[in-house]
Amino acid sequence: MMPASVYIGLMSGTSLDGIDAVAVRFEPHFQLIETHSEALPESLNQRIRGLLAPGDNEIDRLGMLDLELGKAFADASNNLLAKCSLSSADIQAIGSHGQTIRHRPEHNFTLQSGDPNTIAEHTGIMTVADFRRRDMAAGGQGAPLVPAFHNALFRSTETNRVIVNIGGMANLTVLPANADAEVLGYDTGPGNVLMDSWINEHQQLSHDKDGDWAAQGSVIPQLLEQMLSLPFFHEPAPKSTGREQFNLIWIQRMLVLLDQAPNNTDVQTTLAELTATSIAMAIKSHQLDSAEVYLCGGGSHNKYLQQRIQTLLPGYTVATTAALDLHPDWVEAVAFAWLAKQTLDNLPGNMPTVTGASGFRTLGAIYPA
């Protein structure tokens, strides 16, 4: 039997492409034991999307979704355990991010669905969840939370590093080589969400594999300029965002302002350029002498996007976190396993320089097995 220092991390992001589950241990050294990913049933996916914008009968729909997502997260955990031949007794705790339904930092509230009581009940494992709201109660944005984990696992004393997570939204973490320098992190804007929405609307595909569609078009300068004029891109950190701002309706509003109707392929190219440009602008704003940039999240597989980021960042090396011995698909799930460990150890999981909270806080609520 493995020692009870094994944690499970669960992540379902704004891209809604499924549940990622990992089994990890952090002591005496980091070890990724096993990974598992499973798609959300299409009916459940559609119900989540139906709650991402205001609508009718929201409270009842949210209550039922909360229970079903809890069961889905529990199933993913149990399937992970079967995959690596572990039992619930081998696991110290599950750290569950939940599925974000609303993120409104301007109103000091955020809402993640996926009932942790149900996860604990159906797995027999202590579950830690609701990580974001304690940071918000302390005046923070509640996001991004992964920079604290990035700092713990990826920081180097020899070179500046920037970790860029490209999920539905994109966020970065600046890890200075100077041990006395502060870690910074924030959302840079859309990651995959706009590209995914546009290709789904016009080709009924979930995502632009390798950026192949975007690579076929040309950037529409007027559209890119209009999009980049959004105040969010020029606001100082701390800042975070979500589908409330970046969605298909926003794209359509931008298109109405164009002098002529655009080619759909060129719109996709421009949306990719918006993601690449907003990431590159943010990195350049820190005026690092040199830095290694590491991508993670689903967007790290978009070859065209990665090429555009590298082109916009001459003098920087751009790779994925695989070069740091953690596959880019699993970074966020591992982060929430780490956050669960921080909670049980009564250690902080936030970084005030990132979220804007008034101080370090132990995050999350504990749901016993």
Q: What name is given to the CATH topology of the largest domain?
A: Nucleotidyltransferase, domain 5
Helix/strand/pairing category: alpha/beta
Approximate shape:
globular
Unreliable spans are none
Secondary structure: number of strands: 12
Q: Architecture of the largest domain, CATH level 2?
A: 2-Layer Sandwich
SS strand fraction: 15-25%
Task: Give the name of the CATH superfamily of the largest domain.
Answer: ATPase, nucleotide binding domain
> Nearest-angstrom radius of gyration?
20 Å
**Helix/strand order, N-terminal first:** EEEHHEEHEHHEEEHHHHEHEHHE
By DSSP (H or I, 4+ residues per run), the number of helices equals 12
Average pLDDT figure:
95
* The level-1 CATH class of the largest domain: Alpha Beta
Entry summary:
With 369 residues, the chain is of the alpha/beta class.
Could you explain the architecture of this structure?
There is one protein chain. This protein is an alpha/beta fold and 369 residues long. It folds into two domains: 6-142 and 330-367, ATPase, nucleotide binding domain (Nucleotidyltransferase, domain 5, 2-Layer Sandwich), CATH 3.30.420; 146-324, Nucleotidyltransferase, domain 5 (2-Layer Sandwich), CATH 3.30.420.40. 37% of the residues lie in helices and 21% in strands. The chain has twelve helices and twelve strands. The protein has helices at residues 42-51, 58-83, 116-123, 132-137, 146-154, 193-203, 221-228, 248-256, 264-284, 303-312, 331-344, 352-355; strands at residues 6-12, 19-25, 31-38, 91-104, 109-113, 127-129, 161-166, 169-175, 184-190, 292-296, 317-320, 365-367. Helix 6 (193-203) packs antiparallel against helix 9 (264-284), helix 7 crosses helix 9 (264-284) and helix 9 (264-284) crosses helix 10 (303-312). The protein is globular and about 60 Å long. The model has no long low-confidence stretch (mean pLDDT 95).
